[in-house]
Automatic annotation (TrEMBL):
GO terms for biological process: lipid metabolic process. This is Glycerophosphoryl diester phosphodiesterase. It comes from the Bacteria. InterPro entries: GP_PDE_dom (IPR030395), PLC-like_Pdiesterase_TIM-brl (IPR017946). Residues 4-240 form the GP-PDE domain. GO terms for molecular function: phosphoric diester hydrolase activity.
Length: 250
């Protein structure tokens, strides 16, 4: 059976503040196969890695990312909310991340956070950054917003894309494929044999979020999902080793 890849969700986000360099560094040290990052645009249209549209939850600031220039965004403390140990963390730009990540033997998932704010040109901006760093062949670009997927597919039909969803619908795999998606990224509760079979029938990969419990990991590994997103990549890597050993003995 094909190995289920482990993506560190926002980095190793249980151990360090999400989407910061320590979280990414710990993810790389955990033995995870990949990292998932969230992208929003600043007022001066610089892609930055932060999950929420508003900086309130994960920094010492308030207001929307799109209201501030990168210069201002960079001055925010993006670590103290998690622990004072991380008070020197700032919001990371996509450029800074790629300069570091491109030397790591890992795969990447870039989530375009366009489901609340449809940042103009974000697809082109992110595509150009990935192309510049020669990352397109090991990156899947995902979004809850199907328009982003379709736009990315139009920019380059060979790019790997994933429609993200937590909503059940008939013929989900076929629907995503028809809109330019090469993979599906689904919430765990949507996962079943039938969905996986439909993905296979449509030649699509299936990855599942957010998988932190061993019992959920086991189901994903057992079914042979292509990937999982987890806040605890170090635990998932250990669990996958144990799971593989047991499967070999059967
Ligand atoms: O890409 C999987 C997952 O990250 C999607 O949900 O809210 O954690 O970005 P969220
Ligand atoms: Ca995400």
């Amino acid at each position: 059976m094909k190995k289920t890849l482990i993506y560190a969700h926002r980095g190793a986000s249980k151990l360090a503040p999400e989407n910061t360099m320590p979280a990414y560094q710990l993810a790389s040290e955990s033995g995870a196969d990949g990292i998932e990052i969230d992208v929003q645009l600043t007022k001066d249209r610089i892609p930055v890695l932060i999950h929420d549209e508003n900086v309130r939850r994960t920094t010492n600031g308030t207001g929307f990312v799109q209201e501030y220039t990168l210069d201002y965004i960079k001055k925010l403390d993006a670590g103290s909310w998690f622990s004072t140990k991380f008070s020197d963390c700032s919001i990371v730009t996509l450029e800074e991340f790629l300069c570091w990540f491109k030397f790591k033997p890992m795969v990447l998932n870039v989530e375009l956070k366009t489901n609340v704010i449809e940042y103009k040109e974000i697809e082109n901006i992110v595509y150009e950054a990935l192309a510049k760093h020669r990352m397109l062949n090991r990156t899947v670009i995902s979004s809850f917003n199907l328009n982003s997927i379709t736009r990315m597919h139009e920019i380059n039909p060979n790019v790997q894309t994933a429609f993200l969803t937590s909503t059940k619908r008939q013929n989900l795999a076929k629907f995503a494929k028809e809109n330019g998606s090469t993979s599906l990224h689904v919430k765990y509760r949507l996962l079943d044999k039938k969905l996986l079979k439909n993905c296979r029938r449509n030649d699509m990969s299936l990855r599942v979020y957010t998988i932190n419990r061993p019992s959920y990991m086991e189901k994903c590994f057992n079914l042979g999902c292509d990937g999982i997103f987890t806040d605890v990549p170090h635990e998932a890597v250990e669990y996958r080793k144990k799971f593989q050993k047991v499967s070999e003995q059967l």
